[in-house]
Amino acid sequence: MIIHLKNTITAEKAEALAAQHQAAIYKKEDYFVLIQSSKIKTLADTLADHAEAYFVLDTDIQLSSRDYLQTTREVQLGKVTIGGNTNHSVVITGPCSVESEKQIRQSAQLCNQLGVKILRAGSFKPRTSPYTFQGMGIEGLKLLAKISEEYGLKIITEVRDASHVDQVIEYADIIQIGAKAMYDHGILKKCGKTNKPVLLKRGFGSTLQEFVQCAEFVISGGNEQVVLCERGIRTFETKTRFTLDLCGVAFLKEHVNLPVILDPSHAMGYAYGVPDLTRACLAMGVDGLLIETHPNPKVAKSDAAQQLNHEEFSNLYNSLTPIASAIGRKIV
Predict the structure, then answer these.
(1) Distance of CA 190 to the CA centre of its chain
(2) Where are the domains positioned within the chain?
């Protein structure tokens, strides 16, 4: 249940009501919101005099449910707005990992050449093997901040675990919570306290319910700037890295009020399939695409097989405009 308290309720009183009813609490513009378990179907008598409105939901997908808020939430990614009443599909690109100043500078130059406004690159890499490149860490963040300032790009980079979430929040414009960190409550709760946008990736073994409930941790913490990212789930298939759940995307668009971005690079796992898969994703009318590129994928220190080179990405990017136009959307 979601309860909008009257705007006359003080912070002290709102906190006391939240504690009394075991509810999450956060502040909107001029009133407080309490969120109880969806198992509660009746407004308590002790809340009735303090409530302006309340909403009974079927599951703990509550704040992100279209049964609560019918329109897609508007999220500001730097100068780019997605969701809301826009028809925007944002394209985000860059290498899997920051590897050197030369590499990330070349990536920034590609973005400026094509008009891409958001550069992605990881500084902290949650790798499957402990013996592979783990990222440049804080030095990578500082390098991204330098390139961001020089080229006027917004930066999205990943949080690996709660030990460095404050550093990522400080340096990044958009915080990415990766598939392997989706359940990290330390990260989720920290991101709930910032006002920076958060891109939450679905864990490759997670249901849609579990995925969106993780987003609820961030929203209920007070940060409504949350974007969902489908990046493929693990199935019985072995010829691709993962299976991109476009059926799940259809569910999210219908039932969830958060913008949805797709990551065809991680889903496919092989560069040859990324362009066609990207175009199929865009045809669904999603709010954005996250595509990995590298100046020379053959020497990439992580996820080399799935990254497009700059010529391949340029060709792909130029093919997206007519698809977007055909479905009434605009590439931003």
Answers:
(1) 15
(2) 2-55, 75-331
Six token digits for residue 65: 């449910």
| Ordered DSSP codes for 50-82 | TEEEEE--SSS--TTBTTT--SPPPEEETTEEE
Q: How many CB atoms neighbour CB 226 within 10 A?
A: 25
Between CA 2 and CA 160 the distance in angstroms is 31
The secondary structure element, H or E, covering residue 308 is none
Say which DSSP state 205 is in. T
Which pTM was predicted? Answer: 0.94
pLDDT at 209 over 70: yes
Closest CA to 148 of 174, 184, 114: 174
CATH class of 75-331: alpha beta
Give the burial string for 146-156 (b: 16+ CB within 10 Å, else e): ebbeeeebbbb
Measured in whole angstroms, the distance separating CA 247 from the mean position of its chain's CA atoms is 18
| CA gap 267, 177 in Å, rounded | 16
Helix axes 101-114, 310-326, angle to 10 degrees: 30
Q: If we measure between CA atoms, which residue out of 280, 283, 270, 207 comes closest to residue 242?
A: 270
Query: Predicted confidence band at 302 (pLDDT cuts at 50, 70, 90)?
Result: confident
What is the full DSSP assignment across 216-227? Answer: HHHHHTT---EE
| DSSP label of 243 | B
- Sheet strand arrangement including 51-55: 24-27, 32-35, 2-5, 51-55
